[in-house]
């Protein structure tokens, strides 16, 4: 983003705050100045203001800044006030306890997959994600599911922009093949992934809908392949679908499980997984 686009102190402050990422936890005045196209004095002045409000804090050894505790407090307020997260978290916890897998709530936001909430497996061998972390938009079952319910033009835009990334040797990246898979996902109501996002991991995802029927998030289940063999795929798929339907019902959408279609699809997924 260039300085020509950063008009006003608020926009500049927000550009600085959003420049912090998991890969760039600490930022210096000079690098922010270069990256954002702002004068060093401007960046320094804004960082000092943000520091006074505890939005950033300075490391006296490195002379660089990191995000401050005030943002953590505000983030907690957002989570507490989010109907989606509040209504989902007890179900995430329950599904994780019942199945032993890691369960996540994810949305597509700014061309990537954002983890809103999670319930982590208690197993020593497990898949884990950080709340607030971002993943490629086609990451695993949750990514495929949310892409499947996008307008086709929006998916093709993401593909043209190079957002569909190869994550393992088994990742499907061909847009035409993906669009065919999206049709299957919409028809049966869930997505399945076997080592397409993380080698040695499998996952299932089901849509969470609001009262109007819009898909607003994905309920994702992840487990190491060694703990999720072929014969367990149908059982886990049913649990994920039932939990997603329960969350959707809490949001005002009536449950509409097609059990016959779900069972057939889960059996097919199990056979595909076993053949790989």
From TrEMBL:
- Where does the record place the region Disordered? 256-276
GO molecular function annotation: DNA binding; DNA-binding transcription factor activity
Q: Which residue intervals define the domain HTH iclR-type in the entry?
A: 7-69
Q: Which InterPro entries match?
A: GAF-like_dom_sf, HTH_MetabolicPath_Reg, Tscrpt_reg_IclR_C, Tscrpt_reg_IclR_N, WH-like_DNA-bd_sf, WH_DNA-bd_sf
One of the GO BP terms on file: negative regulation of DNA-templated transcription
Q: Where is the composition biased (Basic and acidic residues)?
A: 258-276
Taxonomically, the superkingdom here is Bacteria
Domain called IclR-ED: residue spans: 70-253
Q: State the UniProt keywords alphabetically.
A: DNA-binding, Transcription, Transcription regulation
Record protein name field: IclR family transcriptional regulator
């Amino acid at each position: 983003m260039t300085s020509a686009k950063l008009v006003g102190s608020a926009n500049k402050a927000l550009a600085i705050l959003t420049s912090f990422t998991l890969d760039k936890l600490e930022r210096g005045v000079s690098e922010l100045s270069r990256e954002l196209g702002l004068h060093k004095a401007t960046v320094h002045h804004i960082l000092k203001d943000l520091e006074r409000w505890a939005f950033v804090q300075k490391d006296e050894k490195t002379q660089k800044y990191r995000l401050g505790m005030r943002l953590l407090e505000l983030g907690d307020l957002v989570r507490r006030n989010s109907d989606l997260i509040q209504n989902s978290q007890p179900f995430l916890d329950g599904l994780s306890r019942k199945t032993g897998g890691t369960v996540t709530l994810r949305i597509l936001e700014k061309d990537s997959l954002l983890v809103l909430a999670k319930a982590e497996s208690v197993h020593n061998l497990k898949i884990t994600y950080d709340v607030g972390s971002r993943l490629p938009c086609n990451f695993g079952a949750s990514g495929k599911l949310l892409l499947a319910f996008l307008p086709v033009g929006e998916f093709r835009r993401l593909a043209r922009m190079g957002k569909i990334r190869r994550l393992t040797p088994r990742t499907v990246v061909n847009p035409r093949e993906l669009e065919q898979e999206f049709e299957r996902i919409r028809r049966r109501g869930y997505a399945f992934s076997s080592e397409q996002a993380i080698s040695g991991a499998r996952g299932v995802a089901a849509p969470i809908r609001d009262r109007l029927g819009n898909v607003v998030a994905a309920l994702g289940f992840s487990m190491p392949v060694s703990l999720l063999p072929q014969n367990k795929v149908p059982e886990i798929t049913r649990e994920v679908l039932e939990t997603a339907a329960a969350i959707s019902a809490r949001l005002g959408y009536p449950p509409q499980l097609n059990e016959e279609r779900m069972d057939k699809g889960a059996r097919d997924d199990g056979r595909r997984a076993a053949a790989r």
